[in-house]
Design goal:
Elements: H1 4-9, H2 16-22, E1 30-32, E2 38-40, H3 43-48, E3 55-61, H4 71-84, E4 89-93, H5 98-102, E5 110-111, E6 114-117, H6 119-123, H7 129-149, E7 156-161, E8 165-167, E9 177-179, E10 190-192, E11 194-196, H8 201-208, H9 212-220, E12 223-227, E13 232-234, H10 241-247, E14 255-259, E15 264-267, H11 282-291, E16 294-298, H12 303-318, E17 324-329, H13 331-337, H14 350-356, H15 358-368, E18 374-379, H16 386-398, E19 402-406, H17 408-411, H18 417-429, H19 444-456, E20 460-463, H20 465-476, E21 484-487, E22 507-510, E23 512-516, E24 521-525, E25 545-546, E26 552-553
Parallel strand pairs: 3-16, 3-17, 4-15, 4-16, 8-11, 17-18, 18-19, 20-22, 21-24
Antiparallel strand pairs: 1-2, 2-14, 5-6, 6-14, 7-12, 9-10, 12-13, 14-15, 23-24, 25-26
Helix pairs in contact: 4-18, 7-10, 9-10, 13-14
């Protein structure tokens, strides 16, 4: 059986100008990065600003399991399938981070015969967006430390510095470090640390910015530290936001690539799906809506995290109104939620499936609370029995939800035509009545408690004294009208990763609350969220290589 990279390397790509031509984009609208990648110039936005939008479709999933769900693969395959049935479609995805590629997750360009290409470039340096974000983040760090070294006119309290350096690689040794060693010439000694680039607030800002002016204003609002009187110190106070914006002048432009079947894809941005909103950029999504009849995008993790943030954060800032949701599930993952161990998931077990399918049921209920019609895409594996597949179909019918089988990993767009046809029918027959989950003017605590009660299924929320003090300080600074971005485990609807299925009546534990003033949301931490991952015992990088002829192996 061919690997993902074998399939990718055997593909016949169109020159990127031809992919653009399918969308009405000319060569003059593109900034080429080789033969098969390009950035789209701002002139296209201006030309299309009055054009009617296409349909916006979000692909989300049940809670992730070790069994795998294939959300990105379904997203790519669905875009290909829509073109198979004669629809004009674009896929809008996040860019992968080098850390997971070299660590344990691998690439993020789909899989099998539903991939975005050139896969090797996308999973490595791509068009340099990650490096530009890293440079902007670290320029702010350097200017912060330099300001203190050069006299500290702003009276920054070095004990209350919030801003960390970043790099786009997993490196646990950099989580907590000391900088400034070596005497007076090297600045003041203080504790510091690194985040992975996708966890930087600069990344979240890039993906939520409406244009370069909005980008600069948001960067200026980043709170880097507090002074000795407890007042916030921002990037604008350090006069850093102009230069940071300059470093991001190309990174803010969406990237145009294509799938194995030459379906256009805008791949842009990649914020963490926990401490940030986990979606591709607003600019890419808005542009895609002007260029096609159907835009297929995705959000990180399960629906209670990724879809909620897509709706309540991205759609709020981008003035987006999704027309439908495709909810990805697998028989294997539902059996895992029913208590089956990973090594036994290939065995037929309808009883376990009946216990675990409540996870799917809860996610369906959650999506309906936003007023958006939902279609279940059942990602088929070769080990799924007919009885198991029929059980899921019958349950969905019982719940009043359409379901379609997807086999895009093995068959590409052809394997997703049932999903594509039923999606189009769902959009036509069930007009969306999209609404946000909560009123933005509610208090921070009220917003947290609504999400816990309505989406997670919890009963109460407990706050540490630290979290309560942080909420009070944020509201006193005038940021109570920000949406909340809850960081919790992705493996459970609750904040306890061991509670599978559909836990109910639990208590959500809020440990810490952080303000992302530039991005425009309040981060609510319910556990220890790792913003600088480490490499596993045997990282993927051990198996990645290139031969003298330039052939890459081990990348997936």
């Amino acid at each position: 059986m061919l690997t993902d990279i074998d399939i990718a390397q055997n593909a016949k790509l169109l020159p990127i100008e031809e992919v653009g031509n399918k969308l009405g984009i000319t060569r003059e609208d593109l900034e080429l990065y080789g033969d098969y990648k390009a950035k789209i110039k701002d002139s296209v936005y201006k030309r299309l600003k009055d054009k009617e939008n296409g349909k916006l479709v979000l692909v989300t999933a049940i809670n992730p399991t070790p069994a795998g769900e294939g959300k990105t693969t379904i997203t790519v395959g669905l875009g290909q399938a829509l073109e198979k049935i004669g629809k004009k479609a674009i896929i809008a995805l996040r860019e992968p981070s080098l850390g997971p590629v070299m660590g344990i997750k691998g690439g993020a360009a789909g899989g099998g015969y539903a991939q975005v290409l050139p896969m090797e470039d996308i999973n490595l340096h791509f068009t340099g967006d990650m490096h530009a974000i890293t440079a902007a983040n670290n320029l702010l760090s350097a200017m912060l430390d330099n300001h203190i070294h050069q006299g500290n006119i702003l009276r920054i309290d070095s004990r209350r510095i919030l801003w960390k350096r970043c790099m786009d690689m997993n490196d646990r040794a950099l989580r907590q470090i000391v900088v400034g060693l070596g005497g007076k010439i090297n600045g003041f000694v203080r504790e510091d640390g690194f985040n992975i680039t996708v966890a930087s607030e600069v990344m979240a800002i890039l993906c939520l910015a409406a244009d370069i002016t909005d980008l600069k204003e948001r960067l200026g609002r980043i709170i880097v530290a507090y002074d000795f009187d407890g007042n916030p110190v921002t990037a604008k106070d350090l006069d850093a936001h102009g230069a940071m914006t300059l470093l991001l002048k190309d990174a803010i432009k969406p990237n145009l690539v294509q799938t194995l079947e030459n379906t256009p894809c805008l791949m842009h941005g990649g914020p963490f799906a926990n401490i940030a909103h986990g979606c591709n950029s607003i600019r890419a999504t808005q542009l895609a809506l002007k260029l096609s009849d159907y835009v297929i995008t995705e959000a990180g993790f399960g629906a209670e995290l990724g879809a909620e943030k897509f709706f309540d954060i991205k759609c709020r800032y981008g003035k987006l109104a999704p027309d439908a949701v495709v909810l990805v599930a697998t028989v294997r993952a539902l059996k895992y939620n029913g208590g089956v161990k990973k090594e036994n998931l290939s065995r037929e077990d309808v009883n376990a499936l009946s216990r675990g399918i409540v996870n799917l049921q809860k996610h369906i209920e959650n999506i309906k609370k936003f007023g958006v019609p939902v279609l279940v895409a059942l990602n088929r594996f070769s080990t799924d029995s007919d009885d198991e597949l029929n059980f899921v179909k019958n349950k969905c019918k019982e719940w009043g939800v359409e379901v379609a089988l997807a086999e895009v990993f093995l068959k590409g767009g052809e394997g997703g035509t049932e999903v594509a046809q039923k999606l189009c029918a769902t959009i036509e027959q069930q007009p969306s009545a999209f609404k946000m989950l909560y009123d933005i003017n509610l208090s921070i605590r009220e917003k947290i408690e609504i999400i816990n009660r309505e989406l997670y299924g919890g009963k109460n929320v407990e706050y540490t004294t630290k979290a309560l003090n942080e909420i009070k300080a944020i509201e006193e600074m005038g940021f109570s009208d920000f949406p909340v971005c809850i960081a919790k485990t992705q493996y459970s609807l609750s904040d306890n990763p061991s509670l599978l299925g559909r836990p109910e009546g639990f208590t959500l534990n809020v440990k810490e609350v952080r303000l992302s003033a530039g991005a425009g949301f309040v981060v609510v931490l319910t556990g220890d969220i790792m913003t600088m991952p480490g490499l596993p015992k045997v990282p993927s990088a051990n198996n990645i290589d290139i031969d003298p002829n330039g052939k890459i192996t081990g990348l997936f």
